Amino acid sequence: MNPAQRRSFLRRAAWAAAAHTLPRWAWSKPPSLATTPFSLGVASGDPAPDGVVLWTRLLIADPAHLQASHTVRWELAHDSRFSQIVQKGEATAHAGLGHSVHVELSGLEPDRWYHYRFMLGDATSTTGRTRTAPAATVLTQKLRLAFASCQRWEHGHYAAWHHLVADHPDLVLFLGDYIYEYATPRNTEGLARTHSLRHASTLADYRDRYALHKSDPALQAAHAACPWAVTWDDHEVQNDYAGATGRGDPSAFEALRSAAWQAFYENMPLRAASLAGPAATSQWHTLQVYRRLRWGSLTHIHLLDARQYRSWQACRQPDTTSAGAVRPADCPTLTDTARTLLGHGQERWLDAGLAADARTTDSTRWSVIAQQTLFSARQNPSGLVSTDSWDGYPAARARLLQSVSAHRPRNTVLLGGDIHQNYVCRVHAEALRADSQVLASEFCGTSISSRAGTTRDKVDAIARLNPHVLLARPDQRGYGLADITPARWTTTLRVVLDPMRADSGIATQARFVVEDGSAGPVAA
Fold first, then answer.
1. Mean pLDDT of all residues belonging to the chain
2. pTM tops 0.90
3. Strand (E) positions, 59-127?
4. N-term to C-term CA, the chain
């Protein structure tokens, strides 16, 4: 198979996993497998008013069946006992796609819950629960949205996911760092748990890393509880990579990135439309990760990709393991207006989306910019500026602020992750001028399990220098929960009491409210 044929096969395989209805008698029984094939759980994603994506990935231990593709049956029902079947069919778990299954459903009723499951031979998966979005023109009265990121295996257990399930969200936004590419450090003191996988660099390595994370029962339960919409950050590939550039030999990094991106698609509930892009190579040179999700006219989510198209970090030397920080006076590249975090194409796409949100005939109550990291500027007592965050791309941030200011969506809220800290901020028209107009609200969530790498004293010192920062806390892990109605947005920051325990309790760290038509969060 030549490179173009291989890429074409991968696309066709993804599309072939889309739903097609078959009578029960047409289902064929596959050869028996040596292990429970659904050990990695089930998931659903990207809900639309008429459909949703169902996902699973077979875990096959028997070498005799490892290279074969398998036909998986699926069912969608109104009830958990599957006595009221809505749709059923079969899809192929292709060996070339890691035996993953992506079933794209259509023809469903808007704004309702469903149950689903997969079957292979005599094996049946756990039952997942999913839902469709409301019709695009309906001003639905509520949405409970959870947002989370950063779940390094060794740094903590996934108790946060257990409690998130109990909070009953309608949708989960995962904002990056689903896996970490690292091997377990030699010094395991202070770690919650360890693993035996090597530093990921091949497709098999990345597949194994997703299998490790997805083996956690709390994470599996969270995936099965409701649909997710996922994006990535750097650790799905390599720490602090930027666009087509990473550490090491360029051709070796290209192969590594391609392997990592393929594994991301295989393990996430993404639509086949994610495979848009150049097809004439043997590698995964692009995935369409940025996209929009609409929840009636209540909420329009612009889910961004802040890795694939970004410029190299300012004044970063080649082959360094991380981007680091600089003094602006020593780094003129920092303010180069040609530099971009999102890529100019994605910037134009987002600008067009915000313009559409603001139109009277297509008015959206809450415009959500969901992306990877802290958007608001931070002055640091040290005078240093992080080059991997939005602070490292000030011209790109200014262009986005200009877009919000020019189009004036009714309410704009930014969500982020990455920094393993909870931040709540007022977003000003000029990032570091507290006397400039407040354009938006920002909630940057802490990690599910990853350590912060800073101290409370350092974060408090930063907050004192930045009056637009209303809350900054580095010391706890958890997730954000947004209750959205036409009248107000309420964010509750949920934090686990002890990330070293799988059975940790949960607490509310803070709660903030944004009233319709009034930019900027207020402590509740």
1. 92
2. yes
3. 70-77, 85-93, 100-104, 113-120, 123-124
4. 60
